[in-house]
Each structure stands twice: as C-alpha cells, then as structure tokens.
C-alpha cells in the first residue's frame, strides 16, 4: 500500500510519517507548509506542496503515487482562533475534507483515517470519557471535527471505504528534537516560553472541583500517538469496505495542571512559582480518556509517561530556542 499523509510535514504528521516509514509502509505527503517544515520528513518521502482546496492537485497526488490509503491530518486546530475565525475553520477543515473525500471516492482509494479530537466531547462531567460519551463541542474547531467524523463515515458507507476516526487527547513531547512542536499553543510549550523569558509560568484557574483546584487532563506522547496511527491504518486494511472505527487516543490517566507545572520545574530546573490567573472559557475541570476500546480493537496502549513527554519536549524546545536565563 501507499499511504498519503495530508499535513505530514506538521508536528504530529511528521511523527506519523516517521513511524509508518520505519514500519515499512510507503508514504507520500501533501502539505501546504503553512505550519509544517519539509526538513521534518524522513529521507526519501515525496513531498507535494499543495492545498486540499485544490482538487486538481489532490487528484494528481492520488493518481501519480498510486495511493491506496489516506491518513488525513491537515487542518486548522487552534480553539481560540476558531472562535474568532469560524468561516476560515469551516472552509479549511470541512470544505477541505469534502474536496479530499470526493477525490478519494473517485480514485477508489479504499482506506481513510481521520485525525479527530477530544474537542468533539466539549466539557462532559464524567470520570472517564468513552467513545459513547455524548459529543457536544463548544468551539467551531470542535464542531468541524465532529462534522468531519460524520462526513467521513457517511462517505465511507456510500463509497465502500473503510474509515477510522482517532480522537486525540492532549498531545505532547517529541520523538527527537528536530521534530519538536515549535508552536506555543499547548500548555507545555506555554510553560517553556514563560521560563525562557524569565517569567513565571501561568496556571489558568485554581478553583476547579479537583484535588488541587486545577484542571486535570490526559496527556499522550506524540510518539505513542504516531504508533496508534500505524496500528489503526493497518487495522483498516483488514476491514471490509464501508466499515468504520472510532477510538479515543490517550493514556487513561489524569494529570493536573499543578502537577504538570511541578514536573516542568523538575525537568527544567526552574523553580519559579507559577502565577494563577482566571479560568479560560470552556475549560473542563477534568478530561480523561477511557482507552478500553482502542486496546480491545487495536491491541494498542501508550508506553511513555508524562515525564518522558516533558523531558523530550524540553530537549526539543532548547534545540529551537535560546537557553533560558539562569535563576
């Protein structure tokens, strides 16, 4: 098989590309490089620079590389930005997906794996979020992911494509420094940025109904996430056309923001006490995945702990940024 990875030069996409190539899969990448970097890709992997909104470009990639399966990661993914620019998010995430699925159906590509998100659940008040927890997204980003799942499954049923939807929880860490997340949109890079500027890390809200008052989240190492994509892609090859799989990807363990801040302090050596600011709109007190279904369906479990995420992320941060001041 040859797998097309859309967004394969991005943070998560490049990890998926490396995992699949290391396992012997043939890969081609389509990426507009708006947030990705060509140098992240494994040696020998073809990179086609282009947009999913360009149907002709998508057709050329599918035909020119004899693609038999798609791993679709290309999307806009910042929750706050989606609130400010909902039209852009619906155009990029949903219209782009529609164009891709039309091309996939016409080319008779038989496998389609969709990068979804725990954002589809919104803020459920449950101990563990299962795949049957009602989906109630609270941002345009989450809405595009949920509607994307509906579209993927419907297209799969109509055109005999086996499909999978992977609902990521909080992704962190890096498999190697050069593949690190260089954006400052997630909590660990946000901590690092403050430390690097000689400022105290920020905690948003310390009055939640949790043991230490801060939000509890499920963190997944990006290398584990990449291995989950590989397992899911191979699982799809054994499914009949039109079959679908929807699973959470997490560790099934909660870590509070305060606990994470303490771990960051240990790893970085910066013991500056975090400052507590007000809650951010839409933050759930607790969001932890049930991973029972993915273990049952794919035989997959996360292998790396939160310390490994922070240590690898810090090494990646230092490879892209000046060393922080000594304090």
Characteristics:
alpha/beta, single chain, globular, seven-stranded parallel beta sheet, Rossmann fold, 327 residues
What does this protein structure show overall?
Helix content is 40%, strand content 17%. The protein is α/β, with parallel strands linked by helices. The protein has 2 domains: 2-171 and 220-249, 3-Layer(aba) Sandwich (Rossmann fold); 173-217 and 251-320, UDP-galactose 4-epimerase, domain 1 (Alpha-Beta Complex). The strands form 4 sheets. It has a 7-stranded parallel β-sheet with strand order 3-2-1-4-5-6-11, sandwiched between helices. Helix 1 (11-22) packs across helix 7, helix 2 packs parallel to helix 4 and helix 4 (86-107) runs parallel beside helix 5 (140-159). The longest helix has 22 residues, at 86-107. It is globular. The N and C termini lie far apart (53 Å). The model has no long low-confidence stretch (mean pLDDT 96).
Task: Write the SSE topology.
Blueprint: E1 2-6, H1 11-22, E2 26-31, E3 47-49, H2 55-64, E4 69-72, H3 79-84, H4 86-107, E5 111-117, H5 140-159, E6 162-168, E7 170-172, H6 187-196, E8 202-204, E9 216-217, E10 219-221, H7 222-237, E11 244-249, E12 255-256, H8 257-268, E13 275-277, E14 286-287, H9 292-298, H10 306-320
Parallel strand pairs: 1-2, 1-4, 2-3, 4-5, 5-6, 6-11, 7-10, 8-13, 9-14
Antiparallel strand pairs: 9-12
